[in-house]
Amino acid sequence: MRKEDLQYPWPFCYTKRSMKTLQERIQEDMKEAMKQKEEARLSTLRMLKAALKNKQIDLMHELSKDDVLKVIKSQVKQLADAAVLYADGGRQEAVTAAQAEIVLLESYLPAQMDDDMLEAKVRQALQEAGMQSKEQMGKAMGVAMKAVMGEADGSRVRSIVEKILAVFSVVMVGVGISQVASASASTPTFSADFVVTCLRIVRAFLLIFGVASINYLLVGGFKYMIASGRNDEVSFSLHKITIGLIGTVTVVCLYIVVTSMLQELTAS
């Protein structure tokens, strides 16, 4: 082949020709499916192509990589939901077909992080952004999703963000308790009644945290029971259960500490 026959000027031809976008890859796979007469694969890719076209019309601009990934994930979710309905209706052939379509579409998605790597990455991103409380949940999710860059499902990211923020909130309560105790011990003029009032307020907040933690535990357990073996639902419910357990144990320990401090102060 002569250099002048190449699509791009030498020496950039190989680099540019090898840099395929996700949509170009989908288009090439469609052509290959047509060539090989793979009807099932071709049908799935045509539906994906139509969904991408509709999304582009809605947005009124060319789709970015993130836009394409969102469409693919949406298609996967629709197929997963359909597979559940098929299974409930005893339509095993339809379930198998839907699962095959899911496998095909997921081949265009980035590899998913494992739970340990995902939690480490999210934790680092939240620490760098200074996210420390549940009130910052919305911003924290934005920071976390940007950090994982599509390498984890949104439900998994949300569960981990909730877990990290819940633990941090309880830790901050513990820090507040220790600061109050230190102040009362080191400052002779510090009012004992004031300390008692503060500790009672802290204990009330701990009760609220405890109820929330138990609620997480119960919701997680219920979702686990109805997950029907779906990996995303099982993962989501297990994260809920983990948050509930950590929160409940931490709250119980802090509640015992606060109660003992109150007993000492009121007794004296």
Describe what you observe in this structure:
The chain crosses the membrane at residues 164-181, 201-222, 243-262. This is GatB/Yqey domain protein. InterPro entries: Asn/Gln_tRNA_amidoTrase-B-like (IPR003789), GatB_Yqey_C_2 (IPR023168), YqeY/Aim41 (IPR019004), YqeY/Aim41_N (IPR042184). One of its GO terms (molecular function) is carbon-nitrogen ligase activity, with glutamine as amido-N-donor. Pfam families: YqeY. The structure is a single chain. By secondary structure, the protein is mostly helical. The chain folds into two domains: 3-106, Hypothetical Protein Yqey, Chain: A, domain1, CATH 1.10.1510.10; 115-267. The protein is 79% helix and 0% strand. The chain has helices at residues 13-18, 22-36, 39-59, 65-88, 92-106, 115-129, 137-148, 154-186, 192-225, 231-267. Helix 6 packs across helix 7 (137-148), helix 8 runs antiparallel to helix 9 and helix 9 (192-225) runs antiparallel to helix 10 (231-267). The model is unreliable at 1-19 (pLDDT under 50).
Give a quick summary of the entry.
Helix content is 79%, strand content 0%.
List strands and helices in order, with pairings.
Layout lengths: L12 H6 L3 H15 L2 H21 L5 H24 L3 H15 L8 H15 L7 H12 L5 H33 L5 H34 L5 H37 L1
